[in-house]
Amino acid sequence: MHYWLMKTDPDVYSWRDLLAAPGRRTTWEGVRNFQARNFLRSMREGDLAFWYHSVTMPQAIYGVVRIVREAYADPTQFDPTSRYFDPASQESSPRWVMVEVEEAGAFEPAITLPELRGEVRLEGMELLRRGSRLSIQPVTEREWDIVLSMRESGITKGGKRP
DNA sequence: GCCAACGTTGGC
DNA sequence: GCCAACGTTGGC
After folding, report:
1. Which of A9, A50, A57, A106 is the most exposed place for a label (fewest CB within 10 A)?
2. What's the confidence (pLDDT) of residue A103?
3. Are A136 and A96 in contact, with CB atoms under 8 Å apart?
């Protein structure tokens, strides 16, 4: 069991979109960075991830999702009309993968970036590192627990509501 | 909108 | 294999 953080630009796909999706479940396509892809590949069914909004204020962790389908070929890499099209990727050996996730609890209110930066014990967390751009990143169990502890009334460890 | 930081590309 | 140029990300 491992923990992760997944970044999304809410103008592309938001936490709200996830809650409105059938089964509160969505695919996570469009990753086009090798390091992030390698993390996608090492995700296992049942792993949990923080859902983070970048770019648009307020940048914050909105909730937790569970990995419900492990990495498989991302079809958008073969679609010339997709913004994620990659002409260099071969169908016989797809370069890019995606996973599927489902909602596993919300933080209310969301835990904002300044709030995370203000938590001394989170120093060294990848998200808070200067210049950090990874859209898929590992989170240590310690970091996971600290973030959960920042919302008394929030979700408990494991992603279930109290 | 700016700009620093980073990843990728391509010439050599 | 180096590295400059370029495009993108993402905080502010």
Report:
1. A57
2. 97
3. no
What tens digit of pLDDT does each residue of A30-65 get? Answer: 999 999 999 999 999 999 999 999 999 999 999 999
Q: How far apart are CA A127 and CA A135, in angstroms?
A: 9
Residue A105's pLDDT is 95
Residue linked to tokens 């260099």 = A88
Instruction: Phi first, then psi: give them for residue A97, nearest 5 degrees.
Output: -125, 165
* HSE-up (13 A, CA, CB side) for residue A6: 32
Average pLDDT value for chain A? 91
Length A133 CA → C6 C1' (Å): 18
Handedness of CA A123, A128, A133, A138 (dihedral sign): positive
The reply to whether A114 Cβ lies less than 7 angstroms from strand C is yes
CB of A34 within 7 Å of some strand B atom: yes
Cα separation, A98 vs A74, whole angstroms: 5
pTM score, whole prediction:
0.90
- What's the token pair of residue A127? 């998200």
Say which nucleotide is closest to residue A33, CA to C1' distance.
B7
Q: Verify if strand B has an atom below 7 Å from the CB of A38.
A: no
CA of A132 to C1' of C2 (A): 25
